[in-house]
Amino acid sequence: MNAAKLPQAPAGQSFRRLRLILGDQLNARHSWLRDASEQADTLYVLMEIRSETDYVWHHAQKVLGIFAAMRGFACALAQAGFVVHYISLGAAENRQSFAANLSALMQRHQITELAWQQPDEWRVAQHLREFAATCGVQHQIVDSEHFLADQAQISTQFAQKIPRMEFFYRAMRRQYQILLDAAGQPLGGQWNFDADNRQRWPGNPPAPSWPQPQHDLRALWDEIVAAGVTTLGEPQAAAFNWPLSRREAQAWLQHFIVHALPHFGAYQDAMSRASPTLFHAGLSFALNLKLLHPMEVIQAALAAYQQGAVSLATVEGFVRQILGWREFVRGVYWARMPEYRQLNVLSHQRDLPAWYWTGQTNMACLQHAISQSLSLSYAHHIQRLMVTGNFALLAGIDPDQVDAWYLGIYIDAFEWVELPNTRGMSQYADGGLLGSKPYAGSASYISKMSDYCKGCAYQPKLRHGEMACPLNSLYWHFHHRHADRLARNPRLAMTYRSWGKLSTAEQAATLAQAEIYLAKLDAL
Ligand SMILES: Cc1cc2nc3c(=O)[nH]c(=O)nc-3n(C[C@H](O)[C@H](O)[C@H](O)COP(=O)(O)OP(=O)(O)OC[C@H]3O[C@@H](n4cnc5c(N)ncnc54)[C@H](O)[C@@H]3O)c2cc1C
Ligand code: SF4
C-alpha cells in the first residue's frame, strides 16, 4: 500500500477521543472495532516511527512485514467506516516517536480523551505511561484482548514465585477445559507426551512447504530505505511471503492443520538441511501481531484431533506451545521486568562472533541455522535453542549481545517473548527462574537430531584435536567453569558423573582445546 493512499483524518476536524493502535495490535476482533457507527468522534491512529525501527537492528523482513500489515489493517478499518489517521515513516508530519506524534495530533484535533491497548513491551508501556502523565487529558489503558492468562493476575503470582512451566500449563488446561476427560483428568492419562515427540526426521514423510502469499512490497521497501533505516538480512520485497492480513493468517493456519500438524509432534525437535521449517507452524508472526487469536489456533488443532486427523501426543505437544510456553514466558516477562533484561548470573562477557551476522562459519549446524535466519527471518525452536543459543551459551557470550541478535533477526521477535526465551531459557542468565537447567548440548545431540554433521568441516565424535567439533570441548568447558553453580543440580548429575569418569589427561586436553577455540571464536 502506497503511502499516498493511506487514510488521513481531515486536518481541521475535532474529535473527542484518540485511540492509538500499536503495530503488534492488529486485532480486528477487538471490542473497540465491533461497530463503526457512533464512533464519528473517535480518531484511530497508527504510526510508523523511528523509535520502533531503530531500538535494535532489525531484519528487513520484520520491518517490511509489520509496516505492510499495519497499512493493510488501517485501510480495512477506514473501509469499515472508522476514522483513521496513518502516519507513514516518511510523512512530513512524522516526529518519529509516539509521544511527539500524539502530542501534535491531540493539539490539531482538540482531543480530550486518549486511549491505547496494553502494550506487550515494557519499553513502550513505560513511554506511553510517561506521556500520559504529562499530556493533560484523560487517558485509558484497555486490554488487548489477546492473551489467555490475565496479565495482572499472572504478574502478581509470578512476582512471588515463578512456577515450573509444566504446572502453569496444567492449570491453564484446567482453566480452559482442554484435553481433559469428564473427571477433569488429562486425556490419555498423562499431561505431557514429550517422550513420544523427540524423533529424528528421516526425510519421510515429506515436509510440506508453507503457503506462499505473494506480496509486492518494493514501494514500501523503497520508502524504508529512503528514510535511512538500516536493516539486516534479505528483504525479499518483490515476493514477500509472510501473511499480512487476518484472512491470510487464517488460510495459513488451515494449511498448517492439514499438512504439517499431523507430524508436528514427532519431529518437533528435529533439524534438517533439507527443510528449514519441517513440520513447524510458522504462525508466530501472525500470532504476535494479533492477526490470529491463540484460542482459535488451539481450537483448530483440537478439531483436527477430534476428527481423528492427528494423534493425542501431537495435539498435546502443539497445545503446550501456545497455551503453555507462550503464555508462561509472557508471565515471566511482566512479573520480572525491567530487572530481567539485566540478568547475567553466569557473568558471560565474550563478544558475539561476527559470523552470527553473516553465517560464514565452518560449523555446518551454525552455518545452516544462521544463513536460513538471514534469508527467511525465521528459524524453528530447536535451531534457536540448540544451535545458535547453545553455541552462545557454551562460549560464554554476553547475553545483551545475544538478546540484540534474537530481537533483531526474527520476524516474530518482540521483547515480551524474545527476552525470556533468550536470556532465560536459552542463556540461563536468569539462574533458572524460567528453566530448571541450562539447555546445553554437545555434537552428540546435534548429530542425533539432525543431518548437519554429515559433511561438516569438524568431527562430531572428537573432543580435542584440530578437527574436533567445537561444541564438544566447549560443552565440557561450560560445565567445568560453572560447576560451583550447576554441579548440585540433580538434573545435571549424570553430566557431571560422565565428566568425572574421564581421565585427568582427557579432561585437561578437552579444556585446553576449548581454550584454543575460545581464543579464536571469530575463526571457527
Ligand atoms: C532463543 C529463543 C528465542 C526465541 N524468540 C522468540 C521470539 O522472539 N518470538 C516468538 O514468538 N518466539 C520466540 N521463541 C520461541 C519459538 O522458537 C518460536 O515461537 C517458534 O520458533 C516460532 O515458529 P513457529 O510458529 O513455526 O512455531 P511452532 O514450533 O510451530 O510452535 C507453534 C507456536 O507455539 C508458540 N511457541 C512455541 N514455543 C514457544 C516459546 N518457547 N515461547 C513462546 N511461544 C512459543 C509460538 O506462538 C508458535 O507459533 C524463541 C525461542 C528461543 C529458544
Ligand atoms: S560436527 Fe559439530 S559443528 Fe559440525 S555440524 Fe556437527 S555439531 Fe555442528
Percentage of helical residues?
Answer: 40-55%
Q: What sequence of helices (H) and strands (E) makes up the elements?
A: EEHHEHEHEHHHHHHHHHHHHHHHHH
Uncertain ranges: none
Radius of gyration: 24 Å
N→C terminal distance: 44 Å
Silhouette: globular
Q: Which cofactors or ions or other ligands sit in this model? A: flavin-adenine dinucleotide, iron/sulfur cluster
What portion of the residues fall into strands of 2 or more residues?
Answer: under 5%
Category by helix and strand content:
mainly alpha
Sequence of strands across the biggest β-sheet:
3-2-1-4-5
Count of distinct strands: 5
Q: Average the pLDDT over all residues and give the rounded result.
A: 96
Q: Helix tally?
A: 21
Q: Largest sheet at a glance?
A: 5 strands, parallel
- Seen as an oligomer or otherwise, the chain set is single chain
Question: Can you walk through the features of this model?
Answer:
It is built from 21 helices and 5 strands. With 524 residues, the chain is mainly alpha-helical. Strands 3-2-1-4-5 form a 5-stranded parallel sheet, with helices on both faces. Helix 11 packs antiparallel against helix 12 and helix 14 crosses helix 18. The longest helix has 25 residues. 46% of the residues are buried. Flavin-adenine dinucleotide (FAD) binds next to helix 10, helix 12, helix 14 and helix 16. Flavin-adenine dinucleotide binds next to helix 10, helix 12, helix 14 and helix 16.
